[in-house]
Design a protein that fits this description.
With 546 residues, the protein is mainly alpha-helical. It is built from 23 helices and nine strands.
Length: 546
């Protein structure tokens, strides 16, 4: 594209120079040397094809596989439709081979990375980062104390804020060592705070407690603590399930900010019902109701600040409550405390109903969004796909719901997702299938929603959660692979797999089996020597799709 664009600029620039003063151009047409038409055509063809190739790779990287396919096709068509064919001119032939190899390489890499089984990586939870800090109740400035007292007097909140040395020391901490962290967290909160306040109001929870999420996770949906608590509200698995947050191989609704906020509101309400005090409820949210109740019984007081002073609670819990009070105070007027915060826009979305496992790259393409954009809207999806075996409401950018639904409904079933599948044969069990693919039986059961695997019938189709490069090469691979991918001629007509050489095999026989050539087999397997082929060797092959 770069060379084509430059050529256009030069021509337009020459025309403008000739017309600007109303005079004739410096050279007449007869005086300008004529370029070699054949060479010029070849250069323009290669430049145009390179532009389509680059655009196709960009679209594929963004997850827009259909658009990538169209660009790849156009790149190849430019060569194939050249006068005499792409092989008639040496430069075109070389450029055609280079383009085809680039498409093949990119698509094989896409297939290798595109099973949708790799779990999204979590982020550190801020409760681990800041909860264990030693908060010293050292004297704070008179200015800070006056500012905090003024904030409390304004009374524009619904939680009783305790303005003591512990809380003031936490404000001082936010203004000092944690300034950058706190500023980023408060800005990120703009995505979710309006919804959190709305939910808390509906559940009878003080809306000021929205800032519990700041201390817990810095408003990060993917936050995962050392204690395996996850999401904006940092639910451990058991408590998440107790409040209706689904957790399985496909989804973890602890990372769904909408559903987890409702669960957090109900949990906080329950804790307040138990302790009849918001400080103790917050301490129990952090440490568990059992520990707080035992501390109260052991020390004979139900005053949180007294328990903290007596070291009756763990340091993290002693820090936790004043940190929340401090966050609430600062958040009421950040500028007054020296913070320049630009809240991020609130998350808004449409929803579309998707049946079964559908590649998020396909959803992104139908929604005219990036894959990362779809993942940001759906952080509870642990894989690059919607859950198999059920209908799932997927969030898409606002205003795109109707066209996305129409687009997805029109996609054929065989293009919906990239997965390895296995159809059970007589006598096969979940364990034997797992051994065949080098997978874990528990993962296969979880991916397919199997409660019991004892009565799997012949013909049952199972999703096999194994990325392409990691598939065990058990003789020949008997998986079928449904691929949501660009269908670029021979490039996308094959899928990578491993082949274990059998006794009596030759390269010619293997090549014939996979409809390829000995030369291609050797190209796929660098260093391969036909004379040293032995039973048990594992070869990389790219098998044609049916």
């Amino acid at each position: 594209m770069g060379r084509t664009a430059n050529w256009v600029v030069v021509v337009l620039g020459s025309l403008a120079a000739g017309c600007a003063h109303g005079g004739a151009p410096a050279h007449t047409a007869a005086q300008v040397p004529k370029p070699n038409a054949a060479v010029d055509t070849v250069a323009r063809t290669i430049a145009a094809a390179d532009a389509h190739l680059a655009t196709g790779i960009d679209e594929s990287t963004a997850g827009h596989l259909n658009k990538a396919r169209e660009e790849f096709d156009q790149a190849l068509d430019l060569y194939l439709s050249s006068p005499g064919g792409a092989l008639a001119e040496p430069r075109l032939a070389a450029a055609y081979r280079r383009t085809l190899e680039s498409i093949q390489l990119h698509e094989f890499e896409t297939l290798a990375a595109g099973d949708g089984f790799k779990e999204s990586r979590p982020e550190p939870a801020s409760i681990d980062e800041v909860g264990g800090l030693r908060v010293e109740t050292t004297p704070v400035s008179d200015e800070l104390r006056r500012t905090a007292e003024e904030t409390v007097r304004d009374g524009n909140g619904d939680l009783n804020i305790d303005l003591n040395d512990a809380v003031l020391s936490c404000i001082d901490l936010y203004q000092g060592p944690l300034r950058e962290w706190f500023t980023a967290a408060l800005g990120r909160g703009g995505r979710y705070l309006p919804h959190i306040r709305e939910v808390f109001a509906s559940e009878g929870i003080p809306q000021d407690l929205a800032y519990v999420a700041l201390v817990e996770s810095a408003f990060k949906t993917g936050a995962l603590s050392r204690a395996k608590a996850k999401g904006v509200w940092q639910f451990i698995p058991a408590t998440g399930k107790r409040f209706g947050l689904q957790q399985d191989w496909w989804v973890d609704e602890r990372s769904n900010p909408q559903k987890a906020t409702r669960a957090a509101a109900r949990y906080l309400h329950e804790l307040h019902d138990i302790f009849q005090d918001w400080n103790l409820a917050l301490a129990a949210y952090n440490a568990g109701e059992g520990r707080v109740a035992r501390s109260i019984d052991r020390h004979g007081t139900d005053d949180f600040w007294q328990l903290a002073e007596n070291n009756a609670l763990a340091r993290e819990t002693r820090n936790y409550v004043p940190m929340i009070h401090a966050a609430i105070l600062v958040a009421k007027d950040p500028a007054k405390y020296g913070f320049d915060v630009e809240p991020e826009p609130q998350v808004t979305f449409d929803q579309v109903n998707v049946r079964g496992a559908v590649d998020l790259r396909l959803v992104a393409e139908c929604a005219s969004d990036s894959v990362s954009g779809i993942q940001t809207l759906n952080p509870e999806l642990r894989r690059l796909a919607t859950p198999a075996g059920r209908t799932y409401a997927v969030k898409v950018p606002p205003g795109s719901g109707s066209r996305t639904q129409t687009c997805l409904d029109a996609v054929p079933a065989d293009r919906r997702v990239t997965f390895r599948t296995h159809t059970l044969k007589r006598g096969q069990t979940l364990s034997s299938v797992a051994r065949l693919y080098g997978a874990r039986a528990s993962d296969i059961a979880s991916a397919n929603g199997l409660v019991s695997a004892k009565r799997l019938a012949k013909g049952t189709e199972l999703i096999i959660p194994v990325p392409p490069p990691a598939v065990a090469a058990r003789a020949d691979v008997r998986a079928t692979t449904t691929v949501s991918r660009p269908a670029v001629r021979s490039a996308s007509a094959r899928v990578r797999m491993n082949y274990r050489v059998r006794s009596g095999d030759t390269l010619a026989r293997i090549a014939d089996r996979y409809d390829t050539t000995v030369g291609q087999l050797m190209a796929w397997n660098k260093g391969l020597r036909p004379t040293r082929l032995a039973a048990g060797n594992v070869l990389t092959v790219y098998a044609r799709q049916n």
